[in-house]
Amino acid sequence: AKDVTTEPELLLDRSRAITVQGGDKGGRAVVRIVGKYFPDAARALGGRAEEALKAHLRKRVLPEVGERDFVVVYMHSLVDRGDNFPGLGAIRAAYECMPAAARERLRAVYFVHPGIQARLFFATFGRFLFSSGLYEKLRYMSRLEYLWAHIDKGELEVPECARRHDDELERRPLMDYGIEAADRCCMFDAASMDTPASLRSLRCS
């Protein structure tokens, strides 16, 4: 039977929240996830969000990656407490639904602009929420310049929200340590568990 693309999958595809980009310095494919792009898609998808995420992964992302090793770049830049995007339940479900061979080919997850609260949250609860195979691949990147040690600039499209947040961190470095408040409330707050409906979490506590 023909594998038909549903409306929720099309909405997620058009949001460009999850895209396959170039390669890293080791020749591995790069899957980019932009948290800031998810709010509109999440509102439109409603309770179908997790299902659409899994289908998008199965039909679009994994076929484009093919048999190559790959890394994930997750950009947490300027994610607001009122914004919705794949929460921990959805991310975990997406990882667990991948074939074992694909999980094995995932080499690293680069978490860009995590903030101190997200770091503390994952240090405390990460091992309980994620399988060891996923948790141990997590790498924090507080600045884009650290990401460029692993991926050439021309291989990754950096969204404007990430550029703006990186510039702000350069001007106000204490934000990295949660000492200086950002202009937007809870811009880089910790993750929290969400409902099975997902695409809604990593919110402020």
From TrEMBL:
Q: What is this protein called?
A: CRAL-TRIO domain-containing protein
Q: Which residues form a coiled coil?
A: none
A Pfam family this chain is assigned to:
CRAL_TRIO_2
Gene3D superfamilies tied to this protein? CRAL-TRIO lipid binding domain
Start and end of every CRAL-TRIO domain? 4-167
Q: What PANTHER family does its record include? A: OS01G0948300 PROTEIN
